[in-house]
Fold this protein.
Amino acid sequence: MERGVGKVGFVAEHGLYDEPQSEAGRRSAALVDERGLKTVRIIWVDQHGVPRCKFMSGVDYLSALESGIDFSAALLNMDTGNKLFTPVFVKGGGFDIDELTGFPDMILVPDPATFRVLPWADSTGWVVSDAYFSNGRPVPLDSRYLLRKQVEEAAELGYDYLAGLEIEFYVTRRDSDRIELHETGWPPPPPAVSVVEQGYQYLSETRLGGIGHLVEKLRDGYLGLDLPLRSIEDEWGPGQLEVTFDPLAGLDGADAAVLFRSATKQIAHDLGLHASFMCRPALPNFFSSGWHLHESLRDRTSGRNAFTSDSAEERLSVVGRQFAAGILEHARAMTVFTTPTINGYKRFKPYSFAPDRVTWAAENRGTLLRIQGDPFEKGAHVENRLGEPAANPYLYLAANLAAGLDGIRRSLVPPPVVEADPYADDAPKLPTSLWQALDLLEVDDFFASKFGDAFVSFVVSMKRHEVERFLSEVTDWEMREYFEFF
């Protein structure tokens, strides 16, 4: 009897697996049997970069490899507060996409190459999926689909895209896990938190060792998931950590970022802690957290790093400089994808170790792009310091890759590198708010051409809805500033 999931034979009907994926599917099916997995979490990463999922039985996961699973497309209509931001029952679902008329289901197809067994959960697997309409067409608002298209474009130019992750976050103690209805309705306020026993000593062995119970659990979790862990470090703020990973190719870097954030939050929660990837929490002595994206291209013919310079006069090859030039040209419009929250723009301050304008330099932590590597160095790459930890990994990588490839196609020449103070350089300023960034994206033709007009309109509508909700709230600052004074 056919299992009641998805659409029978959907994967084969539309040719959605290549041979490596089919082989990965067979391996994952064998793992389900060998490990006696009772549950497989089929993950779909929404437009915010948040993993949504259904917990499926092991046997229904096997059916999903052939038929996919049904999954509500209503999530596409929700901003970060789960508020609907578009009239959902109009034709096209508010996005001028015919298949979204009527609040339909999508069909999620697991990508078995991403299959993992979760070390901290009982008899449980985990797999990322791609979203399709019932007619077999990819959902054009699926951020993983957008990154895949850019990875394919890089391959057509003869390159593999490599991304190394360097992500900061905070861990605090949960003083209360109560969930209850409040006068203001649902959801309740965030749990009360206090800092963990760590902070104020940057890169301190004793401070990091003092939270060994957390660090070791995180370490074991990452390694148990086959994530290519490089380092765990303590940062400036109390409870602030940074984790870095070795480079991954193609979609793997973004998939790893999703798994890393999800694992971090779940492992911390099991220890009575709260891990947050919010950029700048409003807690005493907390600094901003960033996501630095290390990236390069690999020549698909020779296997060499395409950014390695063959000239003693240049730190990057011609291709590397063109890639950097593309990112710098599109950086201001790109910020919606690298820094998608209102809170994230509080990081772009002078002398903050975060960029505040479109600059690049060698080994300078105040610039937007940092060149890492010397002439002839095999590991030469660029580090984009624009992103916040809450960014959707697929959109962050896709925007970078699209911009870099544009620089290669057009043989762009980057501006001169900054030789001194990047915060005093006469370079274009980054937007200082999400609404400014949206204005820049809305008038930009490039990302509409790469991601589609419908997707850019979708993102702008969603984020403007969030901005309107934010601006309608009365803040603590306003009460302090005006309540007594006037």
The first helix runs from residue 10 to 13. The two ends are 73 Å apart (CA to CA). The chain has 13 helices and 16 strands.
